[in-house]
Amino acid sequence: MDKQACDVGVVGLGVMGHALVLNLAEHGISVAGYDADQQRARALAADAPADRVCVASSEAELADLLKAPRCVLMLVPAGPPVDSVLESLTPHLSAGDLVLDCGNSFYRDTDRRAATLGPKGIGYMGVGVSGGQHGARHGASLMAGGAREAYNRVLPVLRAVAATVDGEACLGYMGAGSAGHYVKMVHNGIEYGLMQLIAESYDIMHRGLAMSDQASAAVFARWNEVELGGYLMEITADILSRVDAQTGQPLVDVILGEAGQNYTGMWTSQDAMALFVPTPTIDAAVVARNLSDLEAERLEASRTIVRREMPSIPGRDTLLNDLRGALYAAELITYAQGMALIQKASVAHGYGTSMLEVTRAWRGGCIIRSGVVRLLDEAYSTRPDLANPLLHKPFADEVAQRQERLREVVSQAARMGLPAPAMSASLAYLDGYRSDRLPANLIQAQRDYFGAHTYERVDARGVFHTAWETD
């Protein structure tokens, strides 16, 4: 290709970057790619059409290959690697150029980087990308944040590589500044919650009901055809059906029970706490992953803290029926927590996020795509400023109709001695959120007793203090 012939540049040609370049090229967009790892660069050169893709040997050559004003997409791991790439790339950019960080960067880092590049006239956007390698190659969910004019400029590129549902692209403008990365962070927090809920359901089947992995796979496959249908349910059925070629055992049974994390779930919990938004299901999912990493300690504890009797449990069909309803209710509650956080953060961080833009992006392509997103879309179409989907009656009714099944499953899991932290947290959140009275009055009294923190009264305005030890 001729010099300055490429429409966009892509820095980072790993799994996601490689796939995205091929997706862009397939949609008629010429790409210049670069990666410091020459093996990755050679792999792309071997796979990509030569009339649409150039592979640069340096950041300087990459910049030289791009049409002005330049547009560069970064797909590199969050944290220091992003800063390293920007340090090397920025000297070769000019005022009017635009950089899109398409990784899982922490939103405050995105704000910092945008503020650094702004005085140089270089635009910076945080674009959340969900859908994994398959999404990057065949259609992803895209959550863009930054200046509206910058979004409008790159919209044809984003629309080309986005997944589509009913002929509409699964992408949206999440708002100003770091809104795109913030929404992607919460998306991943919801993902943590949903994965933990599904894992707890599997555990109840596997250890509680002594079901084989094939039998569990069949249940998840059936559930994927009803209200629980979604990407995570679909892949769970596939995973449980897979046989390990080396041992002949179910593959899931030879996978170590330790779950890593990429910090986005933890960031979601941390920011929710900073904004005073309760997200206990997501919090429980993060804690469950941390607990899974304590393998040596858990092994020792399993020998020292022994439960000697297993109580009788209801029949398999009865418990599975309850589990189906409980899982759906808990999933709805998880989405509700995440959406409430996005709504609160939009105001706190000045994003101006449209919740309908969020649901539009999540309809397809992303990991958390499911029928629940349609319910969310309907809720925010009716009430755009809805503080929490549980305040929308049709959404709340779906939960209310299944709340007794959630109670039963949490109770049965406790009787069986099986951990169900996300299920339990979802139920506690539901009961707390629907309570017109909570015992926080006692907590206020305790704080006033030991620290003179004062309290408010239900029958008078103002703040009050009691001299507890003398009155």
Question: Could you explain how this protein is built, in words?
Answer:
The structure is a single chain. The chain has helices spanning about 15-25, 40-45, 60-65, 80-90, 105-115, 130-140, 150-160, 180-210, 215-225, 230-240, 265-275, 280-290, 295-305, 315-350, 355-360, 370-380, 395-400, 405-415, 420-435, 440-450; strands spanning about 10, 30-35, 55, 70-75, 100, 125-130, 140-145, 165, 170, 170-175. The mean pLDDT is about 95. Strands 3-2-1-4-5-6-7-10 form an 8-stranded mixed β-sheet, sandwiched between helices. Strands 8-9 form a two-stranded antiparallel sheet. The protein has 20 helices and 10 strands. It folds into 3 domains: about 10-175, Rossmann fold, CATH 3.40.50; about 185-435, N-(1-d-carboxylethyl)-l-norvaline Dehydrogenase, domain 2; about 440-470, Up-down Bundle (Single alpha-helices involved in coiled-coils or other helix-helix interfaces). With about 475 residues, the protein is of the alpha/beta class. Helix content is about 55%, strand content about 10%.
Quick recap:
The chain is of the alpha/beta class and 471 residues long. The chain is 55% helix and 9% strand.
Short descriptors:
471 residues; eight-stranded mixed sheet; Single alpha-helices involved in coiled-coils or other helix-helix interfaces; N-(1-d-carboxylethyl)-l-norvaline Dehydrogenase, domain 2; alpha/beta; two-stranded antiparallel sheet
